[in-house]
Write a structure and sequence with these properties.
By secondary structure, the chain is an alpha/beta fold. It is built from 10 helices and 11 strands. Strands 3, 4, 5, 6, 7, 8 and 11 form a 7-stranded mixed beta sheet that branches. Strands 1-2 form a two-stranded parallel sheet. It has 2 domains: about 180 residues, Periplasmic binding protein-like II (D-Maltodextrin-Binding Protein, domain 2); about 130 residues, Periplasmic binding protein-like II (D-Maltodextrin-Binding Protein, domain 2), CATH 3.40.190.10. About 30% of the residues lie in helices and about 20% in strands.
Length: about 350
């Protein structure tokens, strides 16, 4: 199976873009691809502007998920204009490389594309006596992609479980053809081809928890190393279906509306993410080692405050990530400043 086995790492000065997750949301094989979707209007004029501090200097070491490191690198360009004496050194790869680095004190900030696991939290608590602090810095919709000519109108999470799971846990039968998923005519006998991430990727783990109820994926799923290749695979396969961030939307695919808690179907838009209507939402976060009742100080916490500011969330929005709502931003500030 074509699993992503190797990690990649790179050390960057603050402001250099991380290539591992820098692919824009256009059609990867089309030079005339549309520009990245922008969400500036949702970045929130109600958010406070960033207020700089004097004489900030030093190094921020970041080790973690390439998806969130992409955002870290983009924000670092503007951050360095404010603080030219602060340098950011980045190692990016699978999400799993970050928590051990935080545990061992090798990283000041750990970008994550999924929540910390109970095992990761237990290991940290065993060493320090308290849990890591997770700061949400961007929202993300996990979109279900099909080739643009696929006429599927929508899916429930139960149907997704029946399509992707080797042994569905939500009570339904396995769906192996598009006819079983509700399509007729020439689509009815077409076998459903699955595209997804390997087991160590954050999206794989979020989808497995939220959709498969902790079950296992179907063995026939084609494992791809990145969201862009999942979308490319679906774009080239009329019988394909895959899950990846809305960041990778292209013109050769379309997203499938999903049923929310109210039974209505919702597209993976920023508005539906903020309203909690779309059911497959994750947050990009940054973990730090913050002792309880003690506010953080230094370059790392200022970088986080910058990301949680109006300017930082405009950077989130400008390249296709979904900015946070004001309530989630305030929760981040409260966690950093808790005394």
């Amino acid at each position: 199976m074509n699993r992503l086995r190797s990690l990649f790492a790179m050390t960057l000065s603050c402001g250099i873009f991380v290539g591992c997750a820098s692919t824009p949301k256009g059609d990867r094989g089309d030079a005339a691809a549309p520009p990245p979707r922008r969400y500036q209007a949702l970045a929130g004029d109600a958010l406070p502007s960033y207020e700089s501090v004097a004489n900030l200097r030093g190094v921020i070491t970041s080790i973690g998920a390439s998806t969130t490191t992409n955002l870290v690198a983009r924000a670092s360009t503007q951050f360095r204009r404010i603080y030219p004496d602060v340098r950011l050194h980045v190692s990016a790869g699978l999400t799993s490389i970050g928590p051990p680095a935080l545990l061992e004190g090798r990283a000041d900030i750990v970008p994550m594309s999924r929540p910390l696991t109970p095992e990761e939290i237990r290991a940290f608590r065993a060493k320090y006596g308290y849990v890591p602090t997770e700061i949400k810095v961007a929202a993300d919709a996990l979109a279900i992609y099909v080739e643009k000519r696929n006429p599927l109108l929508g899916l429930t999470l139960t149907q997704l479980d029946e399509i992707f799971s080797g042994a569905p846990r939500r009570g339904g039968p396995s769906l192996e053809t598009w006819g079983q998923a509700g399509l007729t005519g020439e689509w009815a006998d077409r076998r459903i081809n699955l595209y997804g991430y390997g087991p160590e990727d954050g999206v794989n783990q979020v989808f497995r928890r939220q959709v498969l109820d902790g079950g296992e994926y179907r063995l026939a799923m084609l494992v791809e190393p990145a969201g862009s290749s999942i979308v490319q695979g679906v774009a080239a396969d009329p019988s394909g279906i895959g899950c990846a961030s809305i960041f990778f939307l292209s013109r050769r695919v379309r997203t499938v509306p999903l049923a929310g808690m109210d039974g209505r179907f919702y597209e993976p838009t920023a508005e539906n993410v903020h309203a909690r209507s779309y059911p497959l939402v994750r947050y990009l976060s940054i973990c730090v080692n913050k002792p309880p009742h003690r506010p953080l100080r230094g370059p790392a916490v200022e970088f986080l405050r910058f990301l949680l500011s109006r300017e930082g969330q405009q950077i989130v929005a400008a390249e296709g990530n979904i900015p946070l709502d004001a309530k989630t931003v305030q929760q981040g500030h409260d966690a950093l400043d808790e005394q």
